[in-house]
């Protein structure tokens, strides 16, 4: 008689299965509007899950690091919320889906605020809110916070950072517009520079799963045991991710997968099953909405198979 399979076996097999099934999808394009991102290995595909008891599961290439890009946005929002509270943050950025591209000039006609913190304008405003006495200190606080979410020290990819500085004129324009509306205080060029550095922080799929698991666990890192942000902050960040984390495909993602999530142009994705686990992946081939083709397919299947949808 065969022995019953443990929960660990079931999760390990499920990850291996979806990794195998969707790893051969070759649709989609690697982002190249930041020139350094075009060098990404299009075949790369890693999938990792981190549970609340600190147990990690992996399939494929989970140790390869990539720049987090917009995947930093929820975690820097968490830092700003923890430091300033929701009212202060809410004066600079809204919490409504914009229905527009992530780099859109999406500023409220009356308040001048960006629609939400997951689009570039909102993220730049949030980055600039992090309390510090200098831009260098602000970035080091951001880097340190990202590291506490991941449970290890993270580093900036200087080549990607320079590539963003050289090509990120639209982000600078957004920052100047927000300086004009009064949403952004201080130097817009410095604000965008800090945002470029933040986007250029490298992490692995395994790191990203731990970062997601920390949000799932109410703000306490399940691997290190460290409280990174208070529980209401984690809840607020997950709510924003649920509404605005997957670009223009946030609605279809919520219909079919049903978990708070965030993606980034380098092909990373993190999704959170509250009080259960964080799951992350990296696969640079992106669909028309900017989400990783293989990852969306894999998570859709996992959600259906294990009833992960929150509704
Ligand atoms: O600012 C940019 O365009 C990139 N550094 C990040 C874009 C990204 O990942 C889009 N996410 N919502």
From TrEMBL:
Keywords, sorted A to Z: Acetylation, Hydrolase
EC number(s) from the headed UniProt entry: 3.5.1.2
Catalysed transformations (reactions): L-glutamine + H2O = L-glutamate + NH4(+)
Highest taxon in the source lineage: Bacteria
Signal peptide: none
Residues given in the record as substrate binding sites: 70, 120, 164, 171, 195, 247, 265
Molecular function terms, GO-annotated: glutaminase activity
Family: Belongs to the glutaminase family.
Quaternary context: Homotetramer.
This protein's name: Glutaminase
Species of the source: Streptomyces fildesensis
Taxonomic classification: Bacteria, Bacillati, Actinomycetota, Actinomycetes, Kitasatosporales
Designated gene of the protein: glsA
